[in-house]
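To whoever picks this up:

The parser on our side crashed when reading a file containing two proteins. I've narrowed it down to the boundary between the first structure block and the second sequence. Both blocks are reproduced below exactly, byte for byte. First block:
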Amino acid sequence: MHIKEEQLKKFIIESGLVSKTDIKSAEDEASKGSDAFADVLLKQNKIKEDDLRRMEAYVLGIPFVSLIGQKIDFSVLSLIPEPIAVKHNIVAYKKTAKGLEVAMLDIDDLSVLDFVKKKTEIRILPRLTDAPSIKEGLQLYKKSLKAEFDDIIQKESASLKMIADEEGSEGKSEKELKEMAEDLPIIKIVDTLISHAILQNTSDIHIEPQETSLIVRYRIDGILHDAMVLPKESAAGITARIKVLSNLKLDEKRLPQDGRFKITTESGDRVSFRVSTLPTYYGEKTVIRILRENSKGYTLEGLGFHGEGLEKIHDGMKSTTGMILATGPTGSGKTTTLYTMLDLLNTPDVNISTVEDPVEYQMQRVNQTQVKPDIGLTFANGLRTLLRQDPDIIMVGEIRDTETVSLAINAALTGHLVLSTIHTNSSAGAIPRMIDMGAESFLIVSTVKTIIAQRLVRRPVSYTHLTLPTNREV
């Protein structure tokens, strides 16, 4: 809703906050340049931003809100991801039965209002605010997490000091390490790290030991952000706690380990965590991948496929035999693409079996097998067994060796539709990669139907134009 300059000017004059001389000076300056009348008054310090914003809100007929000194629940604040809040100067500060109240500098930013509405599925109630309020609101993203940790560390400093004093011995028994992991402050710290990561829609948590501290970073929208710096003495306990949750060996610090665990949030959402530990110079680094099990189903269009590429994928999925391969670097969403295709193919008249490492999402009516190389259950052995399970569609998590590529081609030749991933930089690179693994060229031509190359990229908020009601409620 655009403010008519004459209407705002009239209200400023009637308020008596700016003298007629200053108003005339601002009018002359505005007529010479590209700045609006109100912006000139601000630049000349003839009016405070807070007063101007309140006048604009009055003229528009919407509430003005100041966030200075307000306490905002982090669960409400985090409904808008921090990168979006910073870029568009918008802060969610109150959630009621009527909707979500958001403070903004520009209430005509329809794209971000549309984004927040789609993300939260809540009615959005825009409120005008000023720059100091937005600045304070944005600082709360980091303050909330820091305040919670400071509270834990202050209350439990004695326990953390005891853990630090006990940390020195490398020869700790597994029982002693387990007792450390079950110490109350360590449990609180790990729970807080995880809950804040989920609220901020984080994809990965990095817990990195340094010489004198422990750095925690969150990957949000593909970019890592420093979330917290913790005392060095908490490192061993946090790692031990995550190992307990993931069912890993507590006393093994020399070799990398992989594990997983699940939780159910207060809202009833099931979240799965994939854990990887790696020995580094200053201790074990831990990375936790967050996977939301009951998130809404994806569509190929929603993943970014369109036009001729989308048609080719659908053509490949219509076949009852052959191979569909997804290529791209680690973390580019290849497995998500395969799961989306499986969801489309998952009907009562077909038998779908998978062999994966790990099983990232559980799917109804799909027989999913977890690879366990330590007991001999490899991709090749799992695929060999699947062929005796009367499958119609087979998904292999990754083609990585000669035996697996040979079995996958054989399955595609004998009346099965095979979906898999392969690590190459392009779709064309998949062919020489398969030949390098020992596949015959004529068999590749006979079996491979579709090869998808993809990358994970950040995308801007969609600029969907809306016609808003005059009361500014979306």
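<<boundary where parser fails>>
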Amino acid sequence: MPDVALEPLRARLRELHSVVVAFSGGADSAFLAWVAHDTLGVDGALAVTAVSPSLPTAERDACGALAAGWGMAWQEVETHELDNPDYARNDLDRCYWCKDALMAAAGPVAEARRATVVLGVNVDDLNDHRPGQRAATERGAAFPLVDAGFTKADVRAWSRELGLVTWDKPAAACLASRLPYGTPVSVGRLSSVERAEAGLRALGFDELRVRHHGDVARIEVPTDALDAVIDRRVAVLDAVQQAGFRWVTLDLAGLRSGGFNHLLS
């Protein structure tokens, strides 16, 4: 059994009474959405997926499939963060403006339901550079997983215990996170990253990042997958170059979640 109990999370959700879950389809938001639906029912829990060029099409489709399979109330809302120059210039506060756009879209949905927007932030997330949490808090969002003391490991352990298919889903940040800070976010750059990563996943590499450095793509995979990338060098080159990159590199340090945040320390 997982180390942390599920009941405090359910109690916190009941305390909120009605929630709108920011649902990206990742392990954290999927777990929170499932528990909210299971605790509060269709009338008390709505999962909302923010749709923009920074969300890969495959993730958008996965959200719809999960919601349908679990019988959750679900809808999409469009966000327009790319229209905001504060977001597009991609400085250290990019995630602030992303969450600000999310809350601007999800807020009215929650208000109409007399609900609170909740995010799948866990205790471990509090230790990383995540200015989006500040934006969400300023707009009245709640973090039930944090309130109930759930770490990332707890989320995965309970997801597995409950039989959720997302229990071992690799972490997947938005496509804009593949661009170094200071490189402006554009639809073209996001599209190149999405196509390159989709091409590599088609080759069987499920856990990866393609970092965008202009004409250069820097591939990150777990260190135990480095040899496999080399073994399939020709196919890897073809997949990434077809996405618009001229040169393709493999990062020998391996996959790092929040790959550009380590440069801030």
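After patching the parser it read the second block fine. The radius of gyration is 18 Å. Residues 94-113 form the longest helix (20 residues).
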